[in-house]
Amino acid sequence: MPQWLCNQLMSAFQKKDRRQIRLLNDCWFYYRAKPDKSKDHSSIH
User: Fold this and answer.
1) Which run of H or of E encompasses 16?
2) What is the pTM of this model?
3) By C-alpha distance, which of 10, 11, 28, 12 is closest to 20?
4) Which residue from 20, 25, 38, 44 has the least number of CB within 10 angstroms?
5) Which InterPro entries would you find in this protein's record (predicted)?
6) With contact defined as beta carbons under 8 Å apart, do 21 and 13 qualify?
7) Cα dihedral 31, 1, 36, 19 sign
């Protein structure tokens, strides 16, 4: 996990900002899933 994202999550948890936590969580899953898809496509060719 990138350091900037980790810092943002820590801040959101401390403030109990649920909207921010959800947004950052979605960003993390999108960020994590994106490279996996490109690997799968490159292995097919």
Assistant:
1) none
2) 0.62
3) 12
4) 44
5) CmpA
6) yes
7) negative
